[in-house]
Amino acid sequence: MSQSPIIQFTGNPRVVRLSASLLDRRDADCDYFAAVKARPQLWPQPYEKRRYAPWETFPLGLVMDALNLIEFNGVSIDEALTRSLGNARNGVHPGVANWVRHACQTYLETAESLAAMLASEGVELRPERNPRIVQGGRSPMEMRSLTVWGRWYGSPDGAVVEFRRMRLRRPLGIADAPSTQAMAYVAAAGKQVADPAELYTLIPVPVRPVPVPRRVRVVEVGLTAGMDLVLLDTTDLERIHNTYASNVRPATVRLLNGDGRSPGQDCADCKARVSCDALAHAPGLLGLDDRGTHRRTWSITTSRYHQICPAQAHLRELRLPGDWETSPAAERGRNVHSWLEAAHVRERPCTAADLPEVGADDCGIADELIERQEYAQARPYLLQHLGVCPLRGPGEVSDVRPEPKIAVYDPQADVVVISHPDLLRRVDGRLVYREQKTSAVPRGITAENALEMVPQLALAVRLISAGVFGDTGGLVELEQLTPASAEVLTFDAADPATVSAAGQVVLDRVRSWHRDVAFPANPGSWCQFCPVSRWCPDSSGPTARTVDDLVFDPATGELLASPGLADSHVEAIAAAIAEPETDDEPPF
Description:
Blueprint lengths: L8 E3 L4 E4 L11 H7 L4 E3 L14 H15 L3 H10 L7 H26 L6 E3 L3 E8 L2 E6 L3 E4 L5 E8 L10 H12 L1 E3 L13 E2 L6 E8 L4 E8 L2 H21 L22 E2 L14 E3 L1 H9 L1 H8 L10 H17 L20 H5 L2 H14 L11 E6 L3 E5 L4 E5 L3 E5 L2 E9 L11 H4 L1 H11 L9 E8 L2 E8 L3 H20 L35 E2 L6 E3 L6 H11 L10
Parallel strand pairs: 2-6, 8-11, 13-16, 14-17, 19-20
Antiparallel strand pairs: 1-3, 4-7, 5-6, 5-9, 7-8, 9-10, 11-12, 15-18, 16-17, 18-19, 20-21, 22-23
Helix pairs in contact: 2-3, 2-4, 5-6, 7-8, 7-14, 7-15, 9-11, 13-14
């Protein structure tokens, strides 16, 4: 990791403590965040005292505490859960508590199944209280350690060692992933920590030797699905060592170099945030006059869920597993956006030639992205797009950026704001920020109510007027597509009245979330669409497919009509239903 002249640190960069799961980095993740996180003796300058949430933010930790009581103290599951939840340092939301109970039960059932399988081979494993670690260095001032977070098991004679990685939802590991190979290496070559409490507090960590195992197993356990996946089960320790040298070590070097910066979800917890030149700062962006409980990440999607139900927003923010049933409408919207992103990357206008008939031998862009049936559903919307394609002009179009990720820090609110424009471009040098919306029928969104109904537009106006993109002028567009129509609404981000109206919309969306510390449930017939309602004790349960007289398409789940005038709460429900869910498993 090279030290930027802008991002200054104090401390010792030669001490590295790397968790194997940190190797599960995705393309959109920030390399610099990982490189800094792996250096526990590096601190930003100037130093910031971290503020912590007044509620429990790590449900897996509660599961671990309960399982420790069960496996090491012989406590019953009911008593263990009572003590784990009751002794939590911060408040535990009732929905979180329900998931923790479920997770503990499924883990114990899965553990019983794993034990039975090994018993048939004559192998008995016992839980090990002391985790394992690989560490070394020329001195405490130049120390590197590799750790894993999960549960350890071993045979009485030490011949068999098993590490279990816990997943919130279901197993999804890959045997040849660097993280899996690193876990196997710690199991094969690591020593036991003398005191588990010192694993993350002392450098070097006091350890005690253990027998070299003859068999190593790496298993993932899905705590919601109650499934297990044996990623590795081998007696070939030489191969584990060779794989570590050939695959894990180069991946570790790349991670620790931290060459790239990608502002986003990582920023809220990043030690480099205080002076990172890649993260835009916009004091007062959200219009809040206090810094809330602690640094957090917010987006329009966050506010949408909070507007529908604060409990839903909270459980989603903690990434609790849900019952995701992506609707056909959501899939259609995803496919339209994917096609448009691929088309606009070419930096030329979309034409009818890009949209052959569904039965054509070659459907061009669509064949690279989606199935023919999906193309048939998306094509009517894409045909309407041709008349309003943002790359048509008039004017000289440049700096085309489809689906960029925008992250901005508002120090006045202590919030990292995330936005995902559908398209950024410049027309005759002027910034134009476009959002696209598909619906089966017109949603009644007009120039007069669009900022309120589609708050992404209001946030876009605020981002531009705050100078996030370099200048304080530009346009914000809403492209509305139905199978029979296309319309573009335009807003001037330099117009004082528009900026003021947008600021009020953003403030209204963020204020209640920013001040909320209880996240109460707001039960209603919309609970039937909530993916995390199974954990909510206040969920109203299944009901008829009507929500306050709203009319839904029984085939797609899409909101078709609502009585009276357009309403922001109704639009929030409609957007939440039509929004594709992401299977975002935390890399613990």
